[in-house]
Design brief:
Length: 301
């Protein structure tokens, strides 16, 4: 747009500088003049229209004076002298990581903090945020376009260091991790809001402890797991012992009931029934009956 306007001015100047009395180039003066006017008109016309893509807003400024209104996504008819600076209002992320290829900056960019017990803790973090559309002119005037390095990075790192001192290293690594994340979210959210930024989410990706502390934690976890395993084994053995006791009690009760129900008369009756069945058998048998004793049965075979 502005380039077309400048080219048109240059061509007009050239066309007027080529006078008929000069060299043979003077015959191109009229062509340069027409081309210059065409470029001026085209550049002026193009500067009157500004397209803002989806997910972006435009901030208008005229000779350094920033206007409060914004241009939303779409096509707009504007003053051709205005300068429009676009801002991304979609969700953005800023990662600070110890892994060289993951962070927003090259190299180890993790946040190193001192815990309540004086140990150095290394934190990998991702900040999800976006620009408040209505605050875009304010950001442009007070901060500029490089709000990542001026606001997002320093505020996040400072607030994390300020809040880490309330926790010891082991608590940050395990039991108090969610509480710590919520605490720094609240403090960073307030700072961002005052500067026209909206904090959406704060993700603690990793917390690295000193090697000695890690070894201690792992030993404690292993001991707790072994204790839980032993407790499970003891509980299982108790259940098995209870099962055997119930089974033995059942057998004893059964035998007691049977013994109580078998009288001498009942036994004699069952004996007589068995003898009658043997006598009715087609096989030849010799039966010796003793007084008061069970018979002795001999087969012919």
């Amino acid at each position: 747009m502005i380039i077309l306007f400048i080219l048109g001015v240059i061509l007009l100047i050239l066309s007027y500088s080529l006078k008929p009395t000069h060299s043979s180039y003077s015959k191109y003066a009229q062509l340069l003049k027409i081309s210059g006017i065409a470029l001026l008109v085209l550049g002026l016309f193009s500067s009157m229209f500004k397209q803002i893509d989806a997910g972006r807003v435009g901030v208008k400024s005229l000779y350094g004076n920033v206007e409060n209104g914004i241009l939303s996504s779409g096509l707009h008819l504007i003053n051709p002298l205005l300068t429009v600076t676009e801002f991304d209002i979609q969700t953005q992320n800023y990662t600070m990581s110890a892994i060289h290829s993951e962070g927003a900056q090259e190299g180890d960019d993790a946040i190193r903090v001192l815990s309540n017990d004086g140990l150095e803790v290394v934190i990998d973090l991702t900040v999800l945020y976006r620009i408040s559309p209505e605050s875009a002119p304010k950001i442009f005037k007070q901060i500029g376009e490089n709000y990542n390095d001026k606001i997002v990075r320093p505020v996040t790192r400072t607030r994390i260091r300020d809040n880490a001192v309330y926790y010891d290293a082991v608590a940050l690594y395990s039991t108090k991790r969610n509480e710590f994340q919520q605490r720094i979210f609240s403090s960073i959210e307030a700072d961002f809001k005052s500067r026209g930024l909206i904090l959406e989410q704060l993700l603690i990706r990793n917390i690295n402890l000193p090697a000695s502390v890690k070894t201690t934690i792992e030993s404690k976890i292993n001991a707790e797991q072994e204790a839980q395993k032993m407790q499970f084994v003891l509980q299982k053995e108790k259940q098995e012992a209870e099962r055997k006791r119930v089974e033995a009690q059942g057998i004893a009760d059964y035998q007691r009931i049977i013994s109580a129900g078998l009288s001498d008369k009942q036994l004699q009756y069952e004996q007589i029934k068995a003898q009658k069945e043997l006598a009715a058998s087609p096989n030849t048998k010799i039966i010796f009956m003793g007084k008061g004793n069970a018979p002795v049965i001999l087969s012919d075979k």
